[in-house]
Amino acid sequence: EVQLVESGGGLVQTGGSLRLSCAASGFTFDDYAIGWFRQAPGKEREGVSCISSVDGSTYYADSVKGRFTISSDNAKVTVYLQMNSLKPEDTAVYYCAAPYACAAQAMGDLIRYLEVWGQGTLVTVSS
Q1: Is the dihedral of CA 68, 105, 47, 3 positive or negative?
Q2: CA–CA dist 29, 126 (Å, integer)
Q3: How many CB atoms lie within 10 A of CB 115?
Q4: Rounded distance, CA 126 to CA 122, Å?
Q5: How much is the pLDDT for 28?
Q6: What is the DSSP letter of 77?
Q7: What long-range pairs does 64-68 form, CB within 8 A, spacing at least 24?
Q8: Fewer CB atoms < 10 Å away: N or C end of the chain?
Q9: Separation of CA 31 from chain center
Q10: Which string of b and e fits 28-67 if b means at least 16 CB within 10 Å?
Q11: Rounded to 5°, angle at Cα 71 from 19 and 75
Q12: Mean pLDDT, contiguous 10-residue spans, the chain (127 residues)
């Protein structure tokens, strides 16, 4: 069974940093894309970033470019999201999931069609 478990969220002040982890089990990162998504209160879920294990390519939403960095440790089968210069609008529950490709379209498709998401990890940025 494929499982992705998020961790690393917390409360941080504006301008602070957090590193989220997405630990995978049940598959390897040989040919998968892993993405980070978030859902703020009262808002729709959105794709934040993803990384492809095939070629290491990455995607970032415009709202996080230059502040967030995604990376993977294939030996640990874990994907990380380093979040710097956090803003109150980054407050959300963050989820990881596996889109069919590391691209905005694929992440949008996953949001539309994935019915069951993990528990996520809450990031709260205070002003």
Answers
A1: negative
A2: 35
A3: 4
A4: 13
A5: 64
A6: T
A7: 64/90
A8: N
A9: 18
A10: ebeebbbbbbbbeeeeebebbbbbbbeeeebbbbeebeee
A11: 105
A12: 92 98 80 93 96 91 98 88 98 95 94 93 97
Residue 53, token pair as written in the block: 């294990």
CB 94 within 8 A of CB 48: yes
CA dist 37 and 87 (Å) reads 16
**Could you give the CA distance from residue 83 to residue 91 in angstroms, rounded to a whole number?**
12
Length of the chain: 127
- Contact indicator for 100, 109 with CB cutoff of 8 Å: yes
**Residue type (1 letter), 18:** L
Q: How far apart are CA 30 and CA 116, in angstroms?
A: 24
The count of other CB atoms within 10 Å of the CB of residue 106 is 18
- Look up residue 3 and give its two tokens: 């499982």
